[in-house]
Amino acid sequence: MRKLSLLILGAAIGAGSATVMSQTNLLSSTSAIAASADTYRQLSLFGDVFEKIRTDYVEKPEESKLVEAAINGMLTSLDPHSSYMDAKSFRDMQVQTRGEFGGLGIEVTMEDGLVKVVAPIDDTPASRAGVLANDVITQIDGESVQGLNLNQAVDKMRGPVNSSVTLKIQRKEAKDPIEVKLTRETIKVRPVRARVEGDIGVLRVTQFNEQTYDGLRSGIEKLTSDIGADKLAGFVIDLRNNPGGLLDQAIMVSDAFLDRGEIVSTRSRNAEDTQRFNAKAGDLTKGKPLVVLVNGGSASASEIVAGALQDHKRATVLGTRSFGKGSVQTIIPLGGNGAVRLTTARYYTPSGRSIQAKGIDPDVEVMQDIPDELKGKDETKGEAGLRGHLQNGGDKEERGGSSAYVPPDPTKDKQLIAAYDLLHGVRKGASNNTGVPN
């Protein structure tokens, strides 16, 4: 049976979820274990309650919604990462993991109830039409966006490739609204952004979708060419506030910097289901020094990469403790009725560490200067702070979240500056937790 491994963002809890997608229909599984007589009696009780609600509730309920709610309640009672996805949620998840969709090419946010353009993506319908950062979208195909949430507005702007949509835009310096008609194209999300910082290459990885490894490889090649292989001091891999993504991409990103050895293993309650993933020969950076940045918002796939490079002593991990999302979920499609996301395993770093509810401690801890208005609000709960979370399974010690704050101004980013100093052989304002040579 072919399985596709994923690590997807769980929006409700702000953390990535290690996931295996199976093409087997849940209801037709041949390995199902016969339920006990007590279980059948409980199922009969469920049927009785369902029938009572269906016939006697004060208003006629939507029966399919009752069933979905019951399924979701059953799954969410297990742990924070098991859940039921209806058909739309399942489609949205697939779009997210593919990293491409039919759309306009604009990054948007919600501000004071209005949809505001963060930035147009280069060479897309929006950028070619002259849409600018800070434009406010007031109407989509003649319908006001007032009252819509961000997801609803985004859904209206996305659609089939070659279909058209008309936006009405209010621009600060323009007296009258601007109307633009755009034709949707295939938009690829850029999960990797590469930039030159003197003699250092910086690779910011924001998620792990199907485009991530290719983006990383292209970024490494471009930075090496722009800086020059002889002058290149090393790379910073910035995984801060990266909630996760596809497991195979996390493995490929780790493998990009390794020549040999285990990257990650997954272990369920059945020992025979253990899987181990190993690196292949070939380091894309030719052994250049690496610093990996993590913080309290780095989860799942980010932790797999950081853990693999840390255990192999291939990189120095710098920042604050990661989120601690170390469990694996299996996504089981239910025909046209959505999918079930079920926790089925824990994953382990090459040295055998389970980071579930513990996180990865950086080799070099560097705390940011937190603005007064954000103090106390900069820390994530971490996996250990989620009600009903899966236990570590080995080490009983659990730890809560850590700071996830990243200053918007790079010149005030102490973690990024410390990474540059480390690659230049200088250590400033950092505590060395693991005896990494100064």
UniProtKB/TrEMBL annotation:
Leader sequence segment:
1-22
Gene Ontology MF: a single term: serine-type peptidase activity
Q: Which CDD domains match?
A: cpPDZ_CPP-like, Peptidase_S41_CPP
Biased composition, Basic and acidic residues: where in the chain? 374-386
| Cellular component GO terms, alphabetical | outer membrane-bounded periplasmic space
Q: Any one Gene Ontology biological process term?
A: signal transduction
Question: Region Disordered: what ranges?
Answer: 374-413
Which UniProt keywords are present, listed alphabetically?
Answer: Hydrolase, Protease, Serine protease, Signal
Sorted alphabetically, which Pfam families does this protein's record hold? Answer: CtpB_N-like, PDZ_6, Peptidase_S41
Residue ranges constituting the PDZ domain according to the UniProt record: 90-158
Lineage top rank: taxon: Bacteria
Family per record = Belongs to the peptidase S41A family.
NCBIfam families recorded: prc (TIGR00225)
Question: What is the name of the protein in this document?
Answer: Carboxyl-terminal processing protease
